[in-house]
Write a structure and sequence with these properties.
Layout: H1 3-30, H2 41-66, H3 70-76, H4 84-114, H5 130-159, H6 165-179, H7 183-203, H8 207-228, H9 232-246, H10 248-275, H11 278-307, H12 316-330, H13 335-342, H14 351-376
C-alpha cells in the first residue's frame, strides 16, 4: 500500500471510531441511560465527546496507526501560528459567517417546516446569570471550536490530503454536518464546514477555522443571553425577524440582498486572510531562498555569469531539500506532508477505505434521518 493510501485509510479508520463511539453516547442519552448523572449529564457527555473523542482520539489514535509522533500530528493538522492581522480578520469573518448562518438556516427551516417537520421546543429560560454564560461559552463555543476543527479540518480533511482539495473539503464538510446528528443543524453546519475547509486550505493553518467556529458559536450563545436579559443585541435580531415576518415578499428580497452582500464581504475577508498567512509565508520563503542561494552560489560566480562565461544552474534535489528545510522552519510542512509529496504513486481510495467511508456516512446519516422522521411524528 502506498503511503498516500495508508494516511487516508488511517484517518478514515480513526474518524469511524469517533462516529461509532459518538453514536453510542447519543443513543445512551436518548434512552435515558445517562440520567444517573443528573444535572451533570450534559457537561459530562460534552467533555467525553469533545475532548476524548473528537480531540484525543483524532490526535493519538491517528498518530498510533500512522506511526507518527504527536508533535508531527499537530503539524500535519496545520497547527501553524498566524499573525495578529490574520487573527483579527478571522474574528471578523466569524461575525459574517454567523449572520449568514442565521439567514441560511432560516431558509432551510422554512423548507423542512413545509414538509411537516415540528421543531424541538427548548425550555424557556426565566433567568440567565453571567456565570451560566461563561459555562455555555466554554462548552458550546471554546471546546467545539478546538475539538471539532481538530477532527474535521485536521484529521479528516488533512487525512484526505492525497486526494483533490475539493474532494477533501466536501467530504469533511458533509461529515461535519452529519456528525451533529440533528436535521435542524445539518444543512448550515455543512455550509459552514465548506467555508472553514476552504479557509484552512487557503491559510495552511487550522487556527482561522477555530476562531471563526468559536465566534459563530459564541455569538449564538450571547444572543440567547441577550434575549433573556433584554440586552440590545438580542432585541436587534428579534426586531429584524419581526420586520421580515411582517411582509413575506419584502422580507425575502431583503434576505437575498443581505446574503449576497455578506457573501461578497466573506470572499473579501478570505482573500485578506490568505494574503496575511500563506501569501506572507511564500514571500518570506522567496526572500530566504534568494538570499541563501545568493550567498552560497552567486557571490563566487556572479562575475562569470554576468560575462556569459559560464551558465549557472541549480540541481533540482538541492532546491527541493532547501525548500522543505525552510518550510519546516516557517511551519509550512510536516514530515507526513513531505512523505505524501515524495510518494509519486497515483492516489485512489482503495476498497477498504471506501467501505469505511460509506459506513461512516450510513451511521451518521441514519441518525440524522431519524431526527427528521421523529420531527414529522
Amino acid at each position: 500500500m502506498s503511503y498516500k493510501n495508508k494516511v487516508s485509510r488511517n484517518a478514515l479508520i480513526t474518524y469511524l471510531v469517533i462516529v461509532v463511539l459518538f453514536t453510542i453516547i447519543k443513543l445512551l442519552s436518548s434512552f435515558g441511560l445517562l440520567d444517573f448523572l443528573g444535572n451533570m449529564k450534559g457537561i459530562v457527555s460534552t467533555i467525553i465527546v469533545q475532548i476524548v473523542l473528537l480531540f484525543c482520539i483524532s490526535i493519538f489514535l491517528f498518530g498510533k496507526l500512522n506511526k507518527t509522533k504527536t508533535k508531527e500530528v499537530f503539524k500535519f493538522y496545520d497547527y501553524n501560528r498566524i499573525g495578529i492581522k490574520a487573527i483579527l480578520l478571522s474574528f471578523a469573518t466569524g461575525v459574517v459567517v454567523y449572520l449568514l448562518n442565521v439567514l441560511v438556516s432560516t431558509f432551510f427551516n422554512a423548507f423542512i417546516s413545509v414538509l411537516g417537520y415540528n421543531f424541538s421546543g427548548g425550555e424557556t429560560m426565566s433567568s440567565y446569570p453571567f456565570w451560566l454564560l461563561i459555562v455555555n461559552l466554554i462548552f458550546t463555543a471554546i471546546l467545539p471550536a478546538i475539538c471539532e476543527e481538530t477532527a474535521h479540518r485536521g484529521l479528516l480533511m488533512r487525512g484526505l490530503l492525497p486526494s483533490t482539495p475539493r474532494f477533501s473539503i466536501i467530504i469533511s464538510s458533509l461529515l461535519f454536518g452529519l456528525l451533529h446528528m440533528n436535521i435542524e443543524q445539518v444543512f448550515y453546519a455543512t455550509l459552514i464546514g465548506i467555508v472553514l475547509g476552504f479557509i484552512t486550505t487557503a491559510s495552511e493553518s487550522i487556527y482561522p477555522a477555530m476562531i471563526i467556529h468559536f465566534t459563530n458559536n459564541a455569538l449564538s450563545v450571547f444572543v440567547s443571553f441577550s434575549n433573556v436579559n433584554n440586552l440590545g443585541l438580542g432585541n436587534v435580531f428579534v426586531g429584524f425577524q419581526k420586520a421580515l415576518d411582517a411582509s413575506p415578499f419584502l422580507g425575502m428580497l431583503i434576505m437575498i440582498i443581505t446574503i449576497y452582500l455578506l457573501y461578497k464581504l466573506l470572499r473579501y475577508l478570505i482573500e485578506k486572510i490568505y494574503l496575511n498567512t500563506t501569501a506572507d509565508k511564500l514571500e518570506k520563503m522567496k526572500n530566504i531562498m534568494y538570499g541563501d542561494f545568493q550567498k552560497r552560489k552567486f557571490l563566487d560566480e556572479v562575475n562569470e555569469i554576468a560575462d556569459g562565461e559560464i551558465e549557472f544552474e541549480l540541481e533540482d534535489d538541492e532546491v527541493t531539500d532547501f525548500f522543505f528545510s525552510q518550510s519546516r522552519k516557517l511551519g509550512c510542512y510536516s514530515e507526513v506532508k513531505e512523505k505524501i509529496f515524495f510518494d509519486r504513486s497515483t492516489f485512489k481510495l482503495d476498497k477498504i477505505s471506501k467501505i469505511i467511508l460509506i459506513t461512516t456516512f450510513v451511521i451518521s446519516g441514519t441518525i440524522t434521518l431519524f431526527t427528521f422522521i421523529w420531527g414529522l411524528l
